[in-house]
Amino acid sequence: MSRTTILRFLNIVTFLVLVSFAGNATKEKKFDVTETIMHHIGDAHEWHLWGEGHSGTSIYLPVIIYDNELKIFSSSHFYHGQIIPVADSLKPTEYLLGEGDAKGYALFHEKIYKVKDGALEFHGGHPHNAMPIDISITKNVLSLFIGAIILLLIMLSTSLYYKKNGAVAPRGIAKFIEPLIVYVRDEIVKPNIHGAKHTRYIGFITTVFFFILVNNLLGMIPVFPGGANLTGNISVTLFLAVCTLLVTVFSGNKNYWKHIFATPGVPWALLPIMIPIELVGILTKPFALMIRLFANMTAGHIIVLSLISIIFINKSAAWGFLSVPMALFISVLEILVAFLQAYLFASLSALFIGAAVEEDHH
Fold first, then answer.
1. From CA 346, how far away is CA 209, in angstroms rounded?
2. Cys staple from 98: which of 2, 105, 178, 353, with CB 3.0 to 4.6 Å?
3. Hey, CA dihedral for 8, 10, 13, 15, is it positive or negative?
4. More confident: 336 or 171
5. 92 to each of 248, 277, 309, how far by Cα in Å?
6. Residue-level pLDDT at 25
7. What is the pLDDT of residue 50?
8. Alpha helices per DSSP H over 26-172
9. How far apart are CA 360 and CA 362, in angstroms?
C-alpha cells in the first residue's frame, strides 16, 4: 500500500473520530449530514483540528476587515464568543457574536456582519446587516500559501540542482519533476500550440498544471485534520479560468479575431447572429474549465464524507465495514482525478491559446 493511500486512510479515521466527538458532545441533537459535509469542504476563519464547540482545538486565523479603518484580530474572538440561536429560520441555526476586539461584529456561515443593537436582524433566515470588507486569512488562503511554498521549494530545488550540476541525469526530487515538465512541454503545449510560438506559453501552462496538481493532492492529504479544499473553491477555479481567458484574448492574432467578427464562409446576413454566438463562446470555454475543476474536486470529497456519514446516520459501527472500504476506494480514485484534472485544465488552456495564435492556412 502506497504512502498516499495510508495517509488518506488515516484522514478517514481522523474524520470518524472528529464526528464521534461531535456526536458525543450533542447526543440529543440529530446528526445533520448536509451541515457536517458542508462544514468540512467549506472555507472558515479557523483551521479546526479536533473537539467541538468552545472546548475544541483549532488554529485561529487572523481576521482582517476594513470598516472605516483597518482592523486585525484573531478569529478566536468569534469562535469563543456568544452563541446566538436564530428564530427566523426554516431550520435550527445560530451565529457567533464577537467579543473583545471583535465586539460589534458577528459571524454567520463564515461571513462577518456588523451587529445592530447588539444582534443580527434576520428576514427569511438571512441576515440583512451591513458587511465590512473582509480580506481575512481564511483556511483556504492559508492552504494557498502552503501550496505555493511547497511548489516554490520543489521548483527552486530542481532548478538549483541543474544550475549546480549542469545537464546531468536527474537525482532526488529532480528525477520526479523533470519527466512531468517534459511531459507538459511535449504532450500538452507542443501539440496544441504549433510552431515556435509554443515556447512563450510553456511557463504559464506548466505553472497552471503544477499549481492545480499540488493543491489537488493537498486537499486529499491535509496538512492538518480537517484540511482545506482549495481547488474545490469556485473562487480559485474562477481565477485560474480568468487567467486562461486573459492569456487567450491578449494572444489572439488577426486570424483569430477575423473568425470571431467575420467568420470565413458565412454569409454577411448571418454575421449579426454569428458574432454574438462567437463572443459568448469566448466566455463559455473558460467557464467550462472553472466548473469542471470545481465540480470534480468537490464531488470526490462529498462522496467520501457521505459514505462515512452512513455510520452515523444508522448509528451503528457495523456499517463501517461497508462504508470505510468504499470511501478508501473512492479516495484512491481521487488520486487519479487529481492528476487528470490538472492535465485537463492545462491541456484545454493550451488548446484555447493555440487556437488564438493559429495562423491563417487558407
1. 5
2. 105
3. negative
4. 336
5. 47, 46, 20
6. 43
7. 75
8. 33-41, 76-79, 139-165
9. 6
pTM across the whole model: 0.85
Q: What are 248-257's pLDDT values in tens digits?
A: 999 998 988 9
Phi, psi of 300 (to 5 degrees): -60, -45
Q: pLDDT above 90 covers what percent of the chain?
A: 49
* pLDDT tens-place string over residues 49-73: 777 766 778 889 999 999 999 999 9
- CA distances to 30, 201, 249 from 285, rounded to whole Å, are 43, 18, 12
Count helices and strands (H / E) in the chain.
Answer: 11, 11
**Alpha carbon distance 144, 150 (integer Å):** 10
CB of 353 closer than 8 Å to CB of 282? no
Grid cell for residue 216: 489537488
Q: What is the average pLDDT across 129-150?
A: 94
With CA atoms as reference, report the closest residue to 215 among 237, 194, 190, 195. 237
Cα–Cα distance between 151 and 76 in angstroms, integer? 30
Residue 242's CB is within 10 A of a number of other CB atoms, namely 13
Q: b vs e for 309-327, b when ≥16 Cβ sit within 10 Å of the residue's Cβ? A: bbbbeeeeeebeeebbeeb
Please check whether residue 321 is in contact with residue 307, taking contact to mean a CB–CB distance below 8 angstroms.
no
> What are the sequence ranges of the domains in the chain?
62-136, 140-357
d(CA 238, CA 165) in angstroms, rounded, equals 40
Residue 341: what residue type? Q
Confidence of residue 173 (pLDDT cuts 50, 70, 90): confident
Give the amino acid at 171: R
Check: CB of residue 189 under 8 Å from CB of residue 348: no
Cell numbers standing for residue 343 = 492535465
